[in-house]
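Summary of Year 1 activities. Much of the first year was spent building the evaluation harness for sequence design. The harness presents a backbone, in tokenized form, and records the residue chosen at every position. We chose the following record to illustrate the format because it has been used consistently in internal testing since the harness was completed.
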């Protein structure tokens, strides 16, 4: 470790060693029931206390996540990318004690002993808008009425019935670039953000039905399945977007095949029991079930975010309340998007996102059904309407 940072940290290290010795009995208890967790933050030589505070908050957040979420994923820059993601529920940090701290390059690293537990309640309920789906080949579905609207409405109904999310019906909007092949290549970030704003949503779901075609044993072509035994495929891409910046977070493709008499009576409502009892309806059921599984995993990996809608001195009002499962004493961090160009991937030139500036920390003091009142605990900048609050941990 460089000599100069050691001098800067000298008194602070002694002070924390005293605190650590005072917490030693608790530390042994934590080793039995809790875990040692690391946290990092940018190192600021002129404000070591701030660096320590941010690193400790990062460790607290990690402890809460680890207590409540079992996660296995392929990651890129810390973000889940694909494959298996197993989740339990949001955790709470009951106690925390310092163990060690050091400087690692430009980062301030703390190690704490955290006593955490899986929360008994559901995680915060995020607001999710579901938009109209595109159909790449409308001529393949003359037997299914209003598929672009009815498919997402069924997905929306099932997401809502889980009790995990606050669902917004946005099937009057389409965020993909038309119904043709270009819809697979271009996503309009501004449109996604606009839909999220109009529907008061954190996340936006869209989709494309790529294929619903039939191969008929009658030899009468792709469509006329009712005249013979047939095979009919349903192939759907589903997209999950960040409503704050319009970025595409995840896209998954699901495929299933039906066999037999795969035509559907156009009078059967898409979401009816009789529809799902048909061979093709059974294939659609398989695809929707897989989409629900993958969407649930992906959404749970996105930190809960809400927006500051009013400020009055050290009091702020947040557009999420009891319906989002916020509760008094929950701790949230406040940030705002940096006014600069988005960060691009150096290989594909795709947008990775915008940087955020940390603005402070707030604690919820009052909860109403649709909003909460919070007290500003720590303020790095003047909090403003439009700032974002993120989950950082909770206490009991």
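For this record, the design step produced the sequence shown next.
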């Amino acid at each position: 470790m460089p000599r100069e940072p050691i001098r800067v940290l000298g008194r602070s290290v002694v002070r924390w060693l005293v605190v650590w010795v005072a917490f030693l009995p608790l530390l042994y208890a934590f080793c039995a029931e809790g875990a040692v967790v690391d946290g990092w933050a940018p190192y600021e030589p002129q404000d070591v206390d701030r660096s320590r505070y941010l690193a400790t908050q990062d460790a607290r957040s990690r402890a809460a996540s680890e207590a409540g979420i079992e996660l296995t994923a392929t990651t890129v820059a810390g973000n889940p990318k694909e494959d298996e993601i197993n989740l339990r529920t949001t955790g709470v940090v009951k106690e925390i004690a310092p163990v060690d701290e050091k400087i690692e390059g430009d980062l301030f690293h703390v190690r704490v002993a955290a006593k955490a537990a899986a929360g008994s309640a559901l995680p915060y309920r995020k607001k999710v808008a579901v938009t109209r789906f595109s159909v790449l080949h409308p001529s393949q579905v003359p037997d299914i009425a209003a598929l672009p609207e009815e498919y997402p409405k069924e997905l929306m109904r099932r997401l809502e019935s889980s009790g995990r999310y606050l669902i917004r019906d946005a099937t009057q909007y389409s965020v993909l670039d038309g119904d043709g092949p270009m819809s697979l290549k271009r996503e309009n970030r501004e449109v996604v953000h606009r839909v999220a704003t109009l529907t008061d949503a954190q996340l936006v779901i869209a989709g494309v039905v790529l294929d619903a075609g039939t191969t008929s044993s009658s030899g009468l072509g792709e469509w006329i399945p009712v005249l013979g035994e047939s095979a009919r495929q349903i192939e759907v891409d589903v997209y999950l977007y960040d409503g704050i910046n319009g970025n595409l977070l995840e896209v998954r493709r699901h495929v299933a095949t039906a066999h037999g008499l795969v035509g559907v009576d156009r009078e059967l409502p898409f979401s009816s029991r009789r529809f799902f009892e048909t061979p093709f309806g059974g294939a659609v059921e398989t695809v929707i079930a897989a989409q629900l599984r993958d969407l649930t995993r992906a959404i749970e990996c996105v930190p809960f975010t809400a927006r500051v809608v009013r400020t009055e001195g050290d009091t702020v009002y947040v557009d999420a309340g009891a319906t989002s499962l916020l509760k008094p004493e929950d701790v949230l961090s406040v940030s705002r998007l940096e006014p600069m160009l988005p960060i691009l991937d150096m290989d594909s030139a795709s947008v990775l996102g915008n940087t955020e500036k940390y603005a402070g920390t707030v604690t919820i003091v009052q909860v109403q059904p649709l909003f909460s009142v919070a007290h500003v605990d720590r303020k790095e900048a003047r909090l403003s309407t439009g700032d974002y609050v993120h989950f950082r941990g909770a206490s009991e």
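The longest strand covers residues 91-104. Quantitative recovery figures across the full test set are reported in Table 2.
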